[in-house]
Amino acid sequence: MRIEAPDPSAFPPGYRAAVFGASGGIGAALLAQLRRQGGVAQAIGLARTAAPGLDMTGVDVADEATISAAAARLAEDARPLRLVIVASGFLHDAQGGPEKSLRDLDPARLARAFAVNAIGPALVLKHLAPLLPREGRSVFVALSARVGSIGDNGLGGWHGYRASKAALNQLLRTAAVELKRTRPAAIVASLHPGTVATSLSAPFAKAGLDVMTPDVSAARLLSVTERLEPDDSGGFFDYRGAAIPW
User: Fold this and answer.
1) The whole model's pTM is what?
2) How do the domains of the chain map onto residue ranges?
3) How many Å apart are CA 1 and CA 4, to the nearest integer?
4) In terms of Cα–Cα distance, which of 27, 74, 246, 84 is closest to 149?
5) What's residue 200's pLDDT?
6) Spatial separation of the C-alpha atoms in residues 236 and 150, rounded to whole Å
């Protein structure tokens, strides 16, 4: 990865970008910042639920049919799709938060975590990879989490979230190997956004943590995305561009 400042010409001008999960805090910030960048012909926001500024709603990463339909609509535009970001994620809901111990494991919640955090982004890549140009740089990134690192796990707990993010990392790394055969300049990576002040992380943000606003996290993530090189494909990086152990 380059260590110099982000290069606004990292992509050829006139490209399209798509943000899945653009109704969430980080996703909405990513979409807004992409729309302000020069060189982006169109930044497309997709999400399951309605929110201001979205181009497609009803796109649920846990429902492959909606992903397939979204890909078909994106394919109607001849302008190249060079950047895809999956910002969706599941940590807690009205039924409870992440598991603290083995006795809290629930099959339905585990399945939900894997469906949204791992399987969903992989299905987005399945349907959008054919839309990435065969020539020239393109990037597919999904938001992972440092707690998905097996090597960095010294605390335990959060079984489903940790395991689903670790699964996401493996799915993207495996896809990166395959994609390189047909699109050698394409980059696939997992990104850790840090602790961000969103509804997903709010109940678990402890005092003393470096909690970022969605805008700050989005700016840092886009900076990393712009600096990724083909040799970084299949990697796992934080919002500063530092590699995270598997």
Assistant:
1) 0.92
2) 15-238
3) 9
4) 246
5) 59
6) 12
